[in-house]
Amino acid sequence: MGFKCGIVGLPNVGKSTLFNALTQTAAAQAANYPFCTIEPNVGEVAVPDPRQDELAKIAGSKEIIPTRITFVDIAGLVRGASKGEGLGNQFLANIREVDAIIQVLRCFEDGDVTHVEGGVDPLRDAEIIETELMLADLESLEKRLVRLEKRGQTGDKEARYLSGLMRKAANLLEEGKPARLAEISPEEEKDWKALNLLTTKPVLYVCNVDEDSAASGNAWSARVEEMARAQGAGTVIISAAIEEEVAQLPEDEQAEFLESLGLHEAGLDRLIRAGYELLDLITYFTVGPKETRAWTVRRGTKAPAAAGVIHTDFEKGFIRAEVIAYDDYIACNGEAGARDAGKMRLEGKDYVVRDGDVMHFRFAN
User: Nearest 10 degrees: CA dihedral of 104, 110, 113, 114?
Assistant: First the structure.
């Protein structure tokens, strides 16, 4: 299981440039005018994980299959998007389909690239986007609340429950706060998610800086980081221009180029790690002579559901899982060594998968 991140922001902040760099394609047209990305561009990239190489080396795997992350480059948003301004309606529809929002904020000056708001101010840009998402959520809730509250007054318990859940979100939105700040019980979690509100999605701020600021950021990115900390959100500093250059270089030249700029890894790697943390995702592995493969699940996932990521039949017929911790697999030089050392465990339906687990599932047909 991968996850889908929507790249959003005002026009001309570097969304499509970043998308092109991340997916190493020219599928998204990066141009100096609003709405150059009319349809959302979708790109999948492999999630780099050096642990896979080590596992494959020990197992003699013929193939390494990483898990993948999907990026969606969504058309630029402007003030009034919640009322249909620009490509607002399309923007809002596309963003409902993603798991998390990567909000690109312009943190660089460039006289050749116009800013739709007349000047660089990433905090103002973030506020514009958040406000439009909150207004769209509020409008969506108000339409549904009128109908549900009427049903609730007639004694409909389900309608009363759902309207109460929606009222939690509406009250926050009316105060100018995103719905993600609502206190939701574990029992309410599923229904809360089903409301599909834009402001419940986790946010990662990407500070798009100039090339000279790529290693340490600048005054604008520092302000964004401060704002993100206050919100409990994540931040990543990236120079989309540098990432685009890196993407065009042969793989064996990329590390040297990054080092020359004071960077130790590509922005993609930092972005994926931040995305994993944001969505609380972990990776487990299946390993054998044919392939070493990575699978992504949310932290807290139990063994049957993890097996279901491979195939639904695995979950339905789950019997048990053979589990070796990554460190034990490496230390024991593979499955046989781990079994001999007593490091292979048999786990049942209640086992909670841990990051790095090497797993083999037993299931009934």
Answer: 90
Tell me the C-alpha distance between 252 and 260, whole Å. 14
Residue with tokens 């993600």: 180
Q: Helix, strand or coil for residue 224?
A: helix
Cα–Cα dist 94/96, whole Å: 5
Could you tell me which of 46, 42, 100 has the C-alpha nearest to residue 268?
46
pLDDT digits (tens, 9 = 90+) for 206-235: 999 998 898 889 999 999 999 999 888 889
Would you tell me how many other CB atoms lie within 10 Å of the CB of residue 213? 18
Cite the beta strand spans of the chain per DSSP E.
4-8, 41-46, 63-65, 68-73, 100-107, 203-209, 234-238, 281-287, 291-298, 318-324, 345-347, 358-363
CB 239 within 8 A of CB 209: yes
Q: Taking the alpha carbons of 176, 178, 100, 40 in that order, is the dihedral positive or negative?
A: negative
Q: Strand, coil or helix: what is 245?
A: helix
Which letter, b or e, does each residue of 189-200 get, where b requires 16 or more Cβ atoms within 10 Å of its Cβ?
eeebeebebbbb
Strand partners, 100: 5
CA distance 35 to 124: 20
- Any idea how long the chain is? 365
Identify the residue whose tokens are 């972005």.
271
Q: Is 170 helix (H, G, I), strand (E, B) or coil?
A: helix
Structure token pair of residue 222: 């520092």
pTM: 0.81
Instruction: Find, among 199, 241, 232, the residue nearest to 82 by Cα.
Output: 199
288-299 per-position pLDDT tens digit: 999 999 999 999
How far is it, in rounded angstroms, from Cα 50 to Cα 281? 17
CB 210 within 8 A of CB 239: yes
Residue type, 166: M
Strands 41-46 and 68-73: antiparallel
Whole-angstrom Cα distance, residue 127 to residue 21? 26
